[in-house]
Amino acid sequence: MAKIIPQATILEKYFVTSTLPTQWCPGCGAGGIGHAVLQAIERMQLDPKKVVLVSGIGCNGHFTRHLRLDDLHVLHGRAPAVATGLKMARPDLEIIVIQGDGDAASIGGNHLIHAARRNIGITTIVSNNYIYGRTGGQYSPTTPKKSISTSSPFGLEDPPFELCNLMVGAGATFVARGTSYHIIQLIDLVERAIKHPGFAFLEVIAPCPTSYGRKNPETGITGPQMLQWQKENSVSIKKAAHMSEESLRGKIVTGILLDRIEPEYSAAYAKVRQRAQKGGLA
Amino acid sequence: MAKIIPQATILEKYFVTSTLPTQWCPGCGAGGIGHAVLQAIERMQLDPKKVVLVSGIGCNGHFTRHLRLDDLHVLHGRAPAVATGLKMARPDLEIIVIQGDGDAASIGGNHLIHAARRNIGITTIVSNNYIYGRTGGQYSPTTPKKSISTSSPFGLEDPPFELCNLMVGAGATFVARGTSYHIIQLIDLVERAIKHPGFAFLEVIAPCPTSYGRKNPETGITGPQMLQWQKENSVSIKKAAHMSEESLRGKIVTGILLDRIEPEYSAAYAKVRQRAQKGGLA
Amino acid sequence: MTTEIRLSGSGGQGLLFIGRILAEAAGVFEGKNAVQSTSYGGQVRGGSSRSDVLISPAEEEIDFPEVMDADLLLAMNQEAADEYGGKVKQSGVVILDTTFVKQPPKTRGRIIAYPFTLKTKERLGSALPTNVVVLAVISQIGALVGKEALVRAIKKRSPKGKDEINLQALNLGFELVKTGVLQRDGDDERELH
Amino acid sequence: MTTEIRLSGSGGQGLLFIGRILAEAAGVFEGKNAVQSTSYGGQVRGGSSRSDVLISPAEEEIDFPEVMDADLLLAMNQEAADEYGGKVKQSGVVILDTTFVKQPPKTRGRIIAYPFTLKTKERLGSALPTNVVVLAVISQIGALVGKEALVRAIKKRSPKGKDEINLQALNLGFELVKTGVLQRDGDDERELH
Amino acid sequence: MSREGLLLQGNEAVSEGAIAAGVRFFAGYPITPATEISEVMARRMPELGGTFLQMEDEIASISAVLGASCGGVKAMTASSGPGLALKAEGIGYAVCAEIPCLIVNVQRTGPGVGSVTPSQQDVMQAKWGPNSDNMIISLSPASIKECFWLAIRGVNLSEKYRVPVILLSDSFLGHMSEKIDLPSPEEIETMDRPRPTVAPEKYKAYDADINGVPPLANFGEGYAVRLVGNMHNKAGDYSRNPRDFDFLINRLHNKILTNLADICAYEEVEIDGADLVIVAYGIVSRAAKAAIRLAKNQGMRVGLFRPIVLWPFPTERLAEIGKKVGGILVAEMNMGQVIREVERTTRGEVPVAGLNRIDGLLINPLDILAKLKEMG
Amino acid sequence: MSREGLLLQGNEAVSEGAIAAGVRFFAGYPITPATEISEVMARRMPELGGTFLQMEDEIASISAVLGASCGGVKAMTASSGPGLALKAEGIGYAVCAEIPCLIVNVQRTGPGVGSVTPSQQDVMQAKWGPNSDNMIISLSPASIKECFWLAIRGVNLSEKYRVPVILLSDSFLGHMSEKIDLPSPEEIETMDRPRPTVAPEKYKAYDADINGVPPLANFGEGYAVRLVGNMHNKAGDYSRNPRDFDFLINRLHNKILTNLADICAYEEVEIDGADLVIVAYGIVSRAAKAAIRLAKNQGMRVGLFRPIVLWPFPTERLAEIGKKVGGILVAEMNMGQVIREVERTTRGEVPVAGLNRIDGLLINPLDILAKLKEMG
Amino acid sequence: MTEISIQRKWCKSCGICVEFCPKKVFTVGELNEPIISTPDACTGCRLCELRCPEFAVIITEVEERSHE
Amino acid sequence: MTEISIQRKWCKSCGICVEFCPKKVFTVGELNEPIISTPDACTGCRLCELRCPEFAVIITEVEERSHE
Ligand SMILES: Cc1ncc(C[n+]2csc(CCOP(=O)(O)OP(=O)(O)O)c2C)c(N)n1
Ligand SMILES: Cc1ncc(C[n+]2csc(CCOP(=O)(O)OP(=O)(O)O)c2C)c(N)n1
Ligand code: SF4
Ligand code: SF4
Ligand code: SF4
Ligand code: SF4
Ligand code: SF4
Ligand code: SF4
Ligand SMILES: [Mg+2]
Ligand SMILES: [Mg+2]
Question: Is F194 helix (H, G, I), strand (E, B) or coil?
Fold first, then answer.
């Protein structure tokens, strides 16, 4: 287990503490992801000047407002597209995208799959709390069937996306899943995702007690209950390899699900520049 | 091999012949898909009154203007979303969506994956000619690497989508691929797709001699050459099962790649109506 | 004449709820005109909360739907008291929950100060229905609506299983008024703060 | 004085190409003012095509960028001839490719009719550079630009490997004018159609 | 639906109005301050055998609505400014393809993501958001009652004229509660799209004279309907003929402009004899009424002109008023949008002043009163 | 870049102008009649070490442009009406977040998908397409030369004022070729966004006075820049304070409106002594010039007022002109858009007539002449 | 037996029918147009119909005449 | 040895630190707020820091004082 950086250090180096407290509800999963991101950044000794956060609209996107880092808080769903432009213009920057499940998979689904397809060198972290938290708890494209939400008062019949599968289908080269509960693993996953040279996708199962928990007590009502549920229902990818499909049903498989190397897009594009500058059309 | 309906019958029953000739270039793949759709409709003896075509913007979407069927020629990329609304409002209709690769996978990518996720009972046929034909030959999200197009004059470095993989990742329940050359198989695939109770996705590899062929002679320049290339480079899914990944590289695998039954979305939603009408919130 | 009531405090104190009950009781069950409006913010939780209710006789339409000068101001925290205390009519009444409001605000109105939250918790075992207790008090003091209408509205709008405790709270509020335990402060003193 | 030239025919006959060459030769290489414009349609292929070129002396700006009354009209198919024949000045010239135009249009202008496409195929083995042949003819007849400028523009704009054949076509055009083989029709006769 | 009075929020009233008008299909994407409309519809649509769809975004929402409408089901969506921006292309498409639908826009503060506080900043966007010239209808309610009735009116106009109708609510009205007496169904006039009168083989989806609304067959009825957003001829086939363009675009305008008497609606308060007239719409008109009350107390004669239909703008009547009064004050919660129409319409014949507020708070009667006094 | 003359199409000239202004990032999505801009950029950007990105749609395109711009690279996109509609939300975001960028809109005929023929139908959309009040700048070139120079001007204004600039070309101009003498680099003035003058720790991305343009640090320079499209305070943090809203929205307007002298541009032809003045912009102004020529021959005294900057509209100068002449004819290829501004501006002091064409063909000098004669 | 007809107004001379007729019934004409050269070889497989992008080929089955 | 401090202004009394401290260092107060009950049991694993959604827990390592 790698070293944990003291919170005091993180606070001092990265936070604008005058912006705290956060606006989140008690037990919200957004903060945990924030910890993991900052721990990884600090552990990797990234130059904070070169780290840019691109944050989506939604509760989870609110994390970045508390930090002393470049931060582009963009339109709902557009973060991967914005980050793609930024990375192409400035390949020297380390770009971390923070989105919610609605932001990433609903309105932003197309940008997400295209970022994956291009293998653009950004890290996209999606906080999947199974709900639109920020707008008061409507179901999202990841909300499990039968869930109650303010827009599915009779129980949802929409099948959900498996975000990681979607990413694999879209051609992503790094796909991982973690949970808020497994915070130590999560830091490692963030680190691995950042280190991955192409597009890295990390899904984090995160509690939204207010908008999801209260209406769907099966997975816990309060923050601690929801973390407990995560603890009890997660299986590492290693273990999962030895389990039957049946016994995996309803389980959260955590870890790195896919990791392969393909040319990173901004680097690949450099070849286009070379060819263009040599003059000939290919 | 099932019966082929005489073209004379098709012309009389389905075409507004005064709209012919088409505006397509010689050898264009759009027409072949049209044949397959009409053959399947007629073979299945669907009631033409109940068949609605939803056509996207692009050369391929122009097929429907020649027909005597309900036809909604929609905005670029939006066909699956429009069709979803129509199907939910009118589950009695048989809805066939005709899109190009750009329409479906670029601007319309999000609607496509969400239609797949919901398992809405429509048939989506994507003519994949590897290019934006209608706007004069810019690369699309399916254009193979290194291709020359008006927007990749130095050779493309974007990795393409594997559309069928994307659909599998999105949760589609029926995924198939055919080619213009294999027209008999294509009719069968259209029929199977229409019969599938949920969302059915059919990719058709189709030639665009004008915008793709001329700049990328490796896969043929003219219509006949491009069909010939399809013939030589296709492998049925059956055969493919016995081939190594290596030997499958660059091959078009045709046939039904995935076929499973899950509740169709408009039918599933009927359950919500039932619960609502019984009065209780679930 | 339109009666202007402002209910102010923190998010989570249930002011929107009692605003709507009051409006419904007056508007629907007593046939008056009633408007309830809310200062609307972007926060998911917490922060300040404000709910205005305007009530007028059936024949008199309510135009502007926010309180201009309150006939009745309820302030459930210090910030609310400070911010709105000045916008009360000379003839108005300011009701403070001294559980939270430690410093009476500058106001022209008459002040009624009482530790509603504490007392509710004491009497009903939970502080949650304090809003309904206060609702009863306000309705009485302002002579806004009768008890029957309040009961109907509460029954209609209470979430499942909550109507019982809410009705208890309503009774408690009526009792507080009747028994005269609500402490009164004169205007003049307040002006000095 | 601005000279107004309209090149019309079918898509694929290369009228846009020679319009641009003409404009570039006159504008860039001979220092005049030149504008070339196109009627723009939505079709991918085929259909009608129109390319207008306006040329004026260096000191005279060109305002409206479309031909109003043509000094020179080239019609490479019947529809074009019919549609634009009437929009030619009294002093204007109408050049018809009789490979496609079988019926001279109603026009006030002088008609020059010649089977350019057929002859080009005959002489150069391919009909493709017919457009450049006609370009040469037009330039001469209208005294629009010198050969040198045309040669430069052709060299600049021809796709790789096509400049040779285009220069041959240019020469052929010049030859046709010089040798006087271009058949001439009087106005009066045409008016009767 | 009971005849008993009800306390409804604006967002609820709009929903119930649309339902009363026959809407049985809702597709939307959540956005504050419009979410309650989704939430009501999520409950009410399935209860009534209709459909509630939460789509992947606003673009998909308007798309799904148009699809449903083609199937003959009255359909609506709801959003706020940023969402309306995303729907603009689809609304323009609906204008061209002439597909009826209701779009509710609960305005919030902008530009950009802005804030969820009330505003009237999307008035111009409602008309000019889509590309090109678009003749749409836009309505502006000022009370809960009007939220209900204008939703009905919106659906009806949309069907009658085959045109998208945009109902412009705002964050304040959307969350304000007021008593409303719901009418019984028979008190509600509902309108349906004009139905074809020719045999299916002869049917063309765009067959109307230059001022006309072409009959619309629903999908699945055997009319071989072709609906299209490209420039088209009467059959709905693509056209490249300039005459077809001219005819089509003019007809799309004329079908509205030749029916202004049917479409336009406004309220007037004490205009006769007024020295000054306030032009205000939506929630601000209520501050204006209060201001008039206060002004009267102070001996001033002030009137109100309240456009209920904002687009097409009631130019004619306003021009008349402009000739009669000493000044016009346009009070609106934006940087000055309707004032542009007022200035244009009154042609300098009367001084026109603006009172604007964009800080997320309501314009107050006292603000208006002060401004009125300033104007003399 | 050579000093030799060149024959360029409008779409090429716009591209070359943007490049000359320092644009090194292009993201777009193909749409006729703007595709050539993409195609030129697909070649030129990598040649110059810049980036050409074909994004998945227009929304992604404007998004990528904004991302690149934050990185300090001058960035642009190009589209046509339907695409501009899709970009509207992003443009509004850029207004609020104050991120410089150039958006070229090559107008085609609408509504809806419409047709690729020329029009001037997106003038109002350019300003009012996004939700809420948006103070943007929009330019209208009339020649190939101007396509080039206004692209430069657009990039410069965008940087100087941290505002999105919309260049309104059209399908005709985009494909028309004209000679242009390209200037040498030193003849071109380029402008960069105002740079921070404070220490990185003190930097705030929105720190300016009520009329000011706040300095903008690029990402990756250590300033901890926070850019945001929500209502915000000077640090870029969310605000719910009405005073912050008021300050921000007013500042976004003021930074443009207090610099009209720098920003506005128009051309006047023979206005002095004119009986009638034509107001025309873009390609139509050339028909107007021809019409003036023809009118002169017939003894009429006609002038031209051509807004080069369409937004903000040159109200002041036009109001003056309105006072001096006998009539104004607004000729435009739409159903009447700029005429609304002209009517508003001239306050009834002069008769204003419109000449409109929406059939995909150019307004012709003879059309104008006939209308002028009608006006007397 | 079959009768083969080509709608000349629709045909774009793409050559697909020519190339892929299993019986090589068509040849290419001067302007690349398809010429029905050996109609009797036609087996009525309809592949030409199905592959013609312009819907321009029509095969009609005609009664096989008895040996008269 | 560690010192545990909670930023009370930031803490939202969610109970996560309480629930998941392996050493049960915290208990719940009257208003659900976390109370540092057995600070000496703390092993300095920092899980409470990392899991606190409000960044409100700060663990400081202090020099273990020698047995004086
Ligand atoms: C274009 C647009 N549509 C809708 C919204 C409203 N909106 C804000 S956040 C959000 C969803 C948030 O859900 P998610 O992304 O899962 O984030 P969470 O709040 O759950 O962290 C929505 C729909 C918006 N801001 N912009
Ligand atoms: C919003 C919008 N953006 C762009 C376009 C331009 N456009 C028309 S068709 C097309 C792409 C067509 O490609 P594809 O879908 O592959 O169809 P094909 O023409 O190749 O059959 C594009 C980009 C448009 N009509 N609308
Ligand atoms: S609503 Fe959910 S996601 Fe949003 S702050 Fe509250 S707990 Fe977190
Ligand atoms: S451009 Fe390609 S897709 Fe379009 S009609 Fe021509 S061949 Fe077909
Ligand atoms: S396939 Fe059809 S279009 Fe092609 S040559 Fe044959 S008949 Fe003509
Ligand atoms: S039907 Fe078959 S055999 Fe006969 S011409 Fe056509 S392809 Fe050839
Ligand atoms: S550091 Fe570990 S042991 Fe110490 S209080 Fe925190 S969770 Fe408990
Ligand atoms: S985890 Fe943090 S917010 Fe939650 S109770 Fe503990 S200190 Fe408070
Ligand atoms: Mg979420
Ligand atoms: Mg394609």
Answer: coil
Within 10 angstroms of residue D158's Cβ, the number of other Cβ atoms is 18
Q: Residue range F257-278: average pLDDT?
A: 97
CB contact set of E223 (below 8 Å; sequence gap of 6+): B70, E196, E200, E203, E217
Q: How far is CA C41 from the centre of its chain?
A: 20
- The whole-number pLDDT of residue H1 equals 86
pLDDT of residue F371: 98
Q: Note whether A119 and A198 are within 8 A (CB).
A: yes
Distance CA(H67)–CA(H58), nearest Å, equals 26
Nearest-angstrom CA–CA distance, B126 and B61: 10
DSSP assignment, residue A163? H
Percent of chain E whose pLDDT exceeds 90: 98
Whether H33 maps to a domain, the answer reads yes
Instruction: Give the Å distances, CA to CA, from D82 to A44, D76, D94, D101, D191.
Output: 76, 11, 11, 9, 13
Instruction: Give the residue, by CA position, lying nearest to ligand 3 atom 8.
Output: A28
Nearest C-alpha neighbor of E306 from the set E289, E327, E320: E289
Taking only the tens place, the pLDDT of each residue in A3-27 is: 899 999 999 999 999 999 999 999 9
- Pocket around ligand 1 at a 6 A CB cut-off: A 57-60, 76, 100-103, 127, 129, 131-135, 140, 208; E 29-31, 58, 82-83, 86, 113
Domain presence at residue G67: no
Question: pLDDT value at position A259?
Answer: 98
User: F6-187 has which CATH code?
Assistant: 3.40.50.970
CATH at residue H33? 3.30.70.20
**Total number of domains in chain H:** 1
pLDDT tier at D40 (50, 70, 90 boundaries)? low
Q: Which domain holds residue H39?
A: 2-61
pLDDT at E104: 98
Domain spanning A7-278: which superfamily? Thiamin diphosphate (ThDP)-binding fold, Pyr/PP domains (3.40.50.970)
- Contact residues on chain A for E56, CB-CB shorter than 8 A: 106-107, 109, 141
Q: What is the pLDDT of residues B205-224, one digit of tens each?
A: 999 999 999 999 999 999 99
Name the residue ranges covered by the structural domains of chain E: 6-187, 267-375
Average pLDDT over every residue of F292-305? 97
**pLDDT score recorded for residue G31:** 83
- DSSP bridge pairs for C7: C51, C74
Which residues of B, range 198-217, sit inside 8 Å of D by Cβ?
A: 210
- DSSP-derived pairing of the beta strands F164-170 and F101-109: parallel
Query: Which pairing describes strands C183-185 and C110-114: parallel, antiparallel, or unpaired?
Result: antiparallel
Neighbours of ion ligand 10 (CB under 5 A): B 100-101, 129, 133
Sort out which chain F residues have CB atoms less than 8 A from C43's CB and list them: 240
Report if residue H14 sits inside a domain. yes
**In chain G, which stretches have pLDDT less than 70?**
64-68
Which residues from C are below 8 Å from F when comparing CB atoms? 41-43, 47
Q: What is the pTM of this model?
A: 0.97
Task: Give me the residue from E6, E290, E362 closest to C28, CB to CB.
Answer: E6
3-class state of residue B138 by DSSP:
strand
Report the CATH architecture of E267-375.
3-Layer(aba) Sandwich (3.40)
For residue H68, tell me if it sits in a domain: no
Neighbour-count burial of H62, counting CB atoms closer than 10 A to its CB (0-12 exposed, 13-18 middle, 19+ buried): exposed
**CATH 3.40.50.1820 applies to domain D3-178:** no
Matching residue, tokens 């604007």? E356
Of the pLDDT bands very low, low, confident and very high (cuts 50, 70, 90), residue B121 is: very high
CA distance A105 to B117: 11
Q: Which of B188-197, B248-257, D31-40 has the lowest mean pLDDT?
A: D31-40
Domain ranges of chain A: 7-278
